[in-house]
Amino acid sequence: MSYVVNTKAEQKEMLEAIGVPHVEQLFDQVPFSLRFQGDLSVPGPFSEQELTRKMSRMASANQSTEDLVCFLGGGAYDHFIPAAVDALSMRSEFYTAYTPYQAEASQGSLQAFFEFQTLICQLTGMDVANASLYDGASAAAEAVLMAMSVTGRNGKVVLAETVNPATRQVIATLLANLGPRIEVIPCPGGFLNPAEADLALDDSTSCLVVQNPNVLGGLEEMADLCQKAQKKGVLLIVSVDPVSLGILTKPGDYGADIVVAEGQGLGNPLAFGGPYLGLLACREKFVRKIPGRLVGQTQDRNGKHCFVLTLQTREQHIRREKATSNICTNQGLYALRTAIHLSLLGPTGLRETAYSCTQKAHYLANKLLETGLVHLDPDRPFFKEFTVKLEASLARRWSTNEILDRMSAHGFLAGFPTGRWLVGKGDCLTIAVTEKRTKEEMDRFVEVFSQIA
Known about the structure:
Blueprint (H helix, E strand, L loop, with lengths): L7 H11 L29 H12 L9 E2 L12 H7 L2 H4 L11 H18 L3 E2 L6 H16 L4 E5 L4 H11 L5 E5 L8 H7 L4 E8 L9 H10 L3 E6 L10 H4 L3 E5 L15 E5 L10 E7 L5 E8 L19 H39 L3 E3 L8 E6 L1 H6 L2 H10 L2 E2 L2 E2 L10 E5 L6 H14 L1
Parallel strand pairs: 1-13, 3-4, 3-5, 5-6, 6-7
Antiparallel strand pairs: 2-8, 7-8, 9-10, 11-12, 12-15, 14-15
């Protein structure tokens, strides 16, 4: 209570209103054994100057991707962000526009969301995109709910094992009390075999969820998988790396029904796992089932061109039983950053970024293979991320975590221990290479890795 701005008299009045003699009684429902009994040792008050100095010292202990050369991936990547993205997105009219309802939504905010939706449609080759979701994993979960609603099938949801396990966990959490059984198709070869997918799909299946590039970095056989899904009346949900669409076939072109993605790599910084940005796009015939909001164009009563919330099927806007989600526009700032980033790059810039990632990733992979200390696992086409398996004698000497710790001591965030994702991959590392990595950094990476090994 000492941190709430009210007087002793006001506190007494509030307690009398709820019929409680003292504040401590409010905590009676918490078992005594669970209450903190020690001394918090809270220091005395600081002046602004003292506090600034103390916080600066604490912050200096942090390490960033400017201190360590980042080869981490798994859904969040160290891409270059033009300075204009920060400069424009932090203008006060954008930076403070939080969750506006239709009555308060400015034309500037609505136009920004409309431009964002348009760019995502162009990027994915889909008909409709919404005004953003929380992150890539929750976007995938929302897409599954959407597929169940579209198909009317509540029996089974099928996921490839090569979908990021974090995404699979979010989907499982959201579906835990909703009825459908989740079937995960094993992918021992590092990719989803279309024949195995065909066997798993039946007339109770609402959707097939595939990630491309997948969690190991490899490219899936999307056209064949799409054909298998369509034959069974199953919706194909594809989770993509949006940067890869600078050079890979658009999901809309090979027949995907719903496309989701983590938008962090499009103008949004790494931030301890979030907040990030979920992308979702679909075919026009599913538009009534899309979660969240949809911004469209119209004319006002004076005939002036303007923007409007065309669909707003979130729970606070319509009767709750008819809502498709409770998603709001708190990711609007990140959607704006993505729109600015894509506008600055343009089609040519995005294609060049994607090519740069691909060329550099293949350069590093080839250099590592030349050492004889690793081999590709699986040996499949990849975009900017790839998985290597340690040579047997090396794996006996060092665990992947020990190698990563030693690489970190030499200034490299060298990758991700794949065994944390997938069973049977304890001797594998997944390494991501973005356009920011230089030839010198990659050559030094190989040199240090060889020395450690």
